[in-house]
Fold this sequence. Notes:
140 residues, mainly alpha, three-stranded antiparallel sheet
Amino acid sequence: MMSFVPLLLVGILFPAIQAKQFTKCELSQVLKDMAGYGGITLPEFICTIFHISGYDTQTMVDNNGSTEYGLFQISNTYWCRDHQIPQSKNICDISCDKFLDDDLTDDMICAKKILDSEGIGYWPAHKPLCSEKLEQWLCE
């Protein structure tokens, strides 16, 4: 019984983040409202997300002293706040760990802000890998 109590406390104090490994078709359905945003087609979004995060919501990448979070690889330098860069501009007004769960609502809102400010060039994988021959990224 004594070992159960600490485990219960850990579960209460540190609830599990609900992560998701999407498939191409699942993600296409979730992101359908982003189709055409900033002039970017849905297959371009799907392709870009595949190349930057592998459709995995818990992807975190260290990038020259900053960290990028979630499907859209949103940086803690400008777009969200975390303990690593407390002086972040936090333009999306959100904690970075919110980009690691399976609810993509806040991810899409922030991604639209990034598109409005930086354009699709924010995601360097787009131009070389996702700007033409996009048939394979369609979901039938």
